[in-house]
Structure formats: C-alpha cells, structure tokens
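Table 4 source record.
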Amino acid sequence: MAGMRENIKTLFSRSDLFRFGVLAATMLGGTVLELASLGAVPLFVSILSGGGADRLSLLANRFGIDVSSLGAIWSGVLLGGLFLIRTLYLVACYWLQERVMRNRHLAIASRLFRSYMNAPYEFHIGRNVSVAITKVNIEVDRAVYIFLDAFLNVIRCSVIILSIVVLLVWYDPFICFGSFLGLAVFGGCFMVLMRRRIGVWGWHAHLCREAVVKDLSEGLGSFKDARILGRGDYFCGRLHRHHEDLNRNLMCFSLFQRSLWPLMELITIVVLLSSMVAMLVFRGYDLAGVAPAMALLGVSLARMKGTLTELMIHWGTVRNNAGVMETICEDLRILEPWLNRWPDHTAKPMAFEREIDLEAVSFRYASSESMNLTDVSLKIPHGSSLGLVGPTGSGKTTLLNMLLGLLEPTTGRILVDGVDIRGNESSWQRQIGYVPQDVYLLDDTLRANIAFGVDADSVDESALREALTASCLDELVSSLPEGLDTVLGERGIKLSGGQRQRVAIARALYVRPQVLVLDEATSALDMTTEREVVEAIERLRGEHTMIIVAHRFASIRGCDKIAYLEGGRVVDIGSYDELFGRLPSFRQMATSGRNQAIDKEPLKN
C-alpha cells in the first residue's frame, strides 16, 4: 500500500489529487441523485393511486381542481424535474471526469516521453525502444483510465457502504452487526486470497503487451529479411504465443470480475436468511414484526451487495494494474532530474575558435567492472580533421559519444577553447553536425528530413540550399517527382544507400556546424557508392573541423591526424603514412581484405 501511495505521488501533483477528490465527490453526488430518483418512483405511484390526496385537498379546493388530477400532474412534473436534474448533473459529471482524465493522460504521456527524450544517452543503452513505446502509448492509458477510474470508484463505493451501515446501525445495531459481518468476512477473505494472484495476472499481462509490441516492431521491421529467409512463421508464431499468454491472463482477471456478481448474490441471500432466523430466534420478533425489518434489510443488503461487488471489482482492477503504475513511476523517478534540466534546446552555441582538448579522459559504463576507455589525451585544432580507427571493441564509439557530449567522462576533461563541456553539453552540441552509420529517415518529405525537427514554416531555405549543394543532392532533388516535397517513405525506403547517407550529410550541414562528426558513415555502402560519399566528404575539408570514425579507411586517409585505438587506449597518433610505416596493427588493418578496394594513394585535401 505504501508503494501505491508513492506511485500516486510520483504521477500526480497536489492539485491533481484535489481534482480527483472533487471527482469522487461529484460521483457520490450522482449516486445520491440516482437513489433519490429511483426512490421517487414508488412515491409517484402512491400519489397517483390517491395515497397523497389529503395533503393536496386544500390547494385543490381553492382552485376548483380535481384532487387526483392535481396530484398526478404536479407529482409527474416533480418526478420529471428530478430525473431532468439527475440527467443534467450526470452529463456534467461525465464531462468533468473525461476532461480531468484526458488532461491527466496528456500530461503524463507527454511527461514520460519528454523524460525519455531528455534522458542521458547511457539510459537508453541496452533498452528496447518497443518497451518505451508500450509505456507511453498503452500503459499510460491504463494507468489513467483504468487504474485511476477504479481507484475513484473504490472511494465512492466505500462511502456508500459506510452510509448503508450507518442506516442499519440506527435501525438495529444487532441486525447491522450480523449482516455487515457476514458480507465483510466473505469480501475481506476473498480479497486477501485473490490479492497476490490478481497482481500476478496484471504484471504478466503488462509483460505480454510489451512483448507483442516488440514482436510487431521486429517482424514488420525485418519484413524483407524474413521473406527472403522464410522466417515469417517464426515472427508470427512468437506473436501468437505472446497474444495467447496475454489473453490467458486477461481471461483469468475477467473471470474473477464476472464471477463476483453471482457469488455476492449467493452471500446476500445467505446473510438475509440468517438475519431473519436470528431475529425470530434471538430477538423474539414475530412474523408481523419481522416483515418491515426484513424489507429495510432486504433493500439495504441489495444495495450493499451491488456496491460491495463494484468495490471488489474496482479493487481488483487497481491491484491488476498496480504493476503498470510501478513501471511508469520507476522510469519517471529515475529520469525526473533530467526532465527540465537537460538538454537545453535554446542554449547558444559554445565558442570554438582554437582547439578541442581531451585531458586524460577515461570512461567506464555502469555495467562494466573495468574502464572501457583509459587515459585518452588528444588535441584537435580548429579546422583540422581527425580519424579514429581500431579493431572492434577498441573504444572508438565510446570516445566519439563523449566528444558528442552524450557520455560524461568518468575521469578527465574535454575542453573546447579551455571550457569544459561538462554542464555545457547543449551549447557544445549546437556546434556539431552528426552523420551516423545507420541514418534514421522520417516517413516525410526530403525537406523535413534535412531540416529534421523543424516545423515546415520555420525551415531556413538558405541553409537548406547550402546543405543540398554541399552534400551533392541537387541532382537527386531534380529527379524526384515533387522535388524537396517528395515523401521518402519509412526509413527512406525510396532512396538508395548512398542517397540516404548524403541526406544524412545534408541534415548535419543544415545547422551550419563548426564540427562535423561522421560515425562509420560509409561502412554499409558498396565500393562505388562509398567513393561518391567520400568525395562529398572530401569537399567539406577545411570548412569544418572533422572527426571521422571508420573501419574502412577510404574516408580517413586524407585526415590530418589519425588516432589508432586498441583495448580502450590510444596506441599511436599520426598521419596515414606515418602510422602505416610504424604501426604493424594499423598496417594489417589497412591492407586487410575489407580495405583492398581502397586506392593506394591517399586522398588530397
């Protein structure tokens, strides 16, 4: 219970809790109006049959109106008015409830997604993106609409039950104690016995929903490979099994909910008959005296039975979705410090006129026992080019991510013109254009993919044209049916590999960066396409400070300096020819089969 309170405090503010209190009060008011309107029906029938004529006779005689007609007309008007008030009240309550719920859903989903987008890079390492999608798109909805609605109804039902108990205590404490004890013992025992099982069903259902989204994402994302390799049945079978597990857990919980009503009816009849026997045997009532008490008890128990059943159903829903709340709150608690602190997208670019200086930089991932990068010291002068090479696992990507401001050094500093980028990551990143190995293209126009994240009416057309020309995309634009407004398809499926990489270069250049970072930008390309992209990169030398990570050496042969990494350390730094002459491991990589297609002569600046 303490964990649930903490989760509620994590998800909702004090003003939210106040709103929920108002909602609970309005729901209770609606219940009172419903009971009043239902109770008015027999009163209307009584007046209509003449039982209330005496009270209206004086008014009827004064106006010369028949008593029965007056009673029927005015009681009908009052009854209709009561139902009209109830209807308007309930519609207003539904509107208020939907408004509050929708706003909370919007706020929590936006807050969670913003937390993921602002999270440190290391948070996302090793996490499956489908899990985050499930939480933002599905589980937040369950947390707000299912959990919260059920929680408010638990409060409402509890108040109604308490009111019925007070009524019975006022009428006959002995009868109240026996009746309430019977229902409470059954309800309490049942909830205690089912508490853990309901939570397990909910948690397993949550895991299955995550697995289903993952199966869909991987199956559809790998459609081409799955079709060619004949692996479609594998993904379909995996999805079927997870759907089967999901439906099994949902079925168990649904069966629990639906079986409560007949079970409570049985218990109510047993309690009612037991109370009658108790009144006859222990209280000394005769049959005539038992009748009115049994009538009140019967109506009260019927209402209590329905409300207690509702309470148990909603309590089960709360328990069933407690795991959903926990997973959302766990991520929010981890990421809350970064929600509004980092990154600052309005930061001004950091001044960079002299050099980037790495001073004895080391780094260790949280999951590693030893340093992944050790004592790296480098100087990168403004306007120069640096290549980072080394075997797989040598630390190139880790070093690059620190230079990008995505990872903070465990020890050491990265200085730009003498200013540490720690705490100034956003300002530093405003100076960087980044070209990844596997560029992510939006299912949108070429213009939107190059401007990336900029509203259509805010695109800088001058910067866009400069980026197109520098990345050699003018010919592609002229060949497209709608030019820059051509939709590229999901992940740029309508473009070739080389065209996608040039779009990535154009995206990096659109922000007019001083530093251009290329991370294995040509490793997935064929020989001819790689040459075309390398030529586009070569034209940019001198205009930007360039940092290039590569396995294949075509793109780094013309670099001013090349740093060779091995085992998380910088083994040597020099030009291509210098390293080729004095470093056997570098020479072996340069002459290996994967680099046989590279020209013998280095590319000139």
